[in-house]
Amino acid sequence: MKDFSAQKVRTYLKELLCNSGAIKLPSMRAIAQKCGVSVSTVCKVTREFERNGTLNTRWGYRVERAGESEREDRKRKISPKKASGARKWEAIRDSIALAIRSAQYRHGSQLPQTRSLQTTYSASYGTVRRALEALTLAGYIEPQGGGYRVVYSARAKTAIWRPRVVVISAGNRPGVPKAISDREQDFYRFLTAGAVQCGIEIELVVYDDWQREPVFLLQSGESVTHLKKDESVLGYILSSWHIKDCEECIFRLSVCNKPISVWMENTVSEKRRWNRRVRFFNIGYSEKPGEQMAHYLMQVGHTQIAYVSPFHGSVWSQMRLRGIKKALSEAGHNYVLHPFVNTTHTSEWSVTDSLMCDQSFNNLLNTDALEKYLPGNFRERITNFRLHGIELLRDNMITELMSSALDLIVENQAITAVIGANDLCALLMMHYIQHKAPYAQKRIALCGFDNSFEGLQGGLTSFNFNTHSLTTAMLDFVLHPSLEKGKAGEVYYFEGSVIERLSTAKRVKK
User: Fold this and answer.
1) In terms of pTM, does the model score above 0.85?
2) Residue 166, SS3 per DSSP
3) What is the average pLDDT across 359-370?
4) pLDDT digits over 13-36, tens only?
5) What gap in Å lies between CA 482 and CA 250, rounded to an integer?
6) CA torsion sign, 9 to 10 to 16 to 19?
7) pLDDT of amino acid 431
8) Residues 6+ apart with CB under 8 A from 490
9) Rounded to an integer, what distance in angstroms lies between the CA atom of residue 61 and that of residue 87?
């Protein structure tokens, strides 16, 4: 199927190249719509044409006939005709950059005065000035006296053609986002791969709002207002995981007046009037994962299902339970739900926080004796030893929160399936039952959410939240913001899928 899709794009591009005299070809999105394929397929094919010298791609999504723009530049000594919708200052910027790269303006030489450039390009002072500022940011020129000096170097060769998307995430160190779960780590892997495919760069910016005043931490040490002025920044992708006030972060970014894709893992106000450049993308903050998991269990023969959550203080746990209830109620009276929930905590991280506040637990985690006994080169391993101890105590506390519910489930012979709030809960339940009631293992099917690596190792049936489709759509909106379509603050949902493994392999008879 993929080869067939790619062939359609190849045929369409060949027809354009043979029959069209235009230098600029349709955008990658337009080509994808015309051929009925994905943008990623068009990207792959255009890269093939680029390698054989047939096409050039700029900014990761503009397509032009190879060599045409350079010959036109040399002939006219000004920028090529702008493609539909292109801004004049961009064309001037590109023309001057080409002149610098082709040594018409040599390294160390003075660029013509702004008034002279106005005459050359038939443009206003403000338009030329904006083009010069963009070239300065890209490293082609620098202000000197009343004009500009050429400082072109090898580093600048691709700078103007390598725009950036800024990824905002929680953390407390510049360039080091907080990514604990497998889903978060997959988010960065898929995002990086997608950026490479589109020919753009990713810049990681940390947002810390757990201090007195929220702050953006850039690796360059500059403030977020610097990104507003930087023309090479196309837009922002925000991961709301671990951010205390997501709405405040979005508000601070919106002043930059660029597209913002938000990965929803927090609630946002439905009443707030969002900027048209803000879009929300959701894969886990919904009733649908719970609904899909319940449908799967009913299909394999389970009629009485338990839902266990020690994190029911969170909205995501409540939504999963609502989804399960909805699926079972629609199926009829033969299906029964047994909810066992605890609203004290919102996640495993809130359990860890409460653990660290208890001095008795801190005494168990004391590593002073190890630090005195071992030399300094073991300090990092001692820290890891303490972290593993924290996880051990955390998991024990979560198990204790679920133990009374599990005892009731084991006693109730009618319950044949248990859904954990996430993979961590389901795995801890699996270990508890194996230890306390091994005779019930064959009767009880277990499943969770997150499709974690630990779940894979434990043979746990889980739910894949389709992070790849999420990152592709978020990146696509930033690169091609269809501001005339859709509503401001619109939420896009991507359905995941149940991953069946050994923990639910034993079918029960209806």
Assistant:
1) no
2) strand
3) 82
4) 777 766 544 456 777 777 877 787
5) 19
6) negative
7) 95
8) 279, 280
9) 16
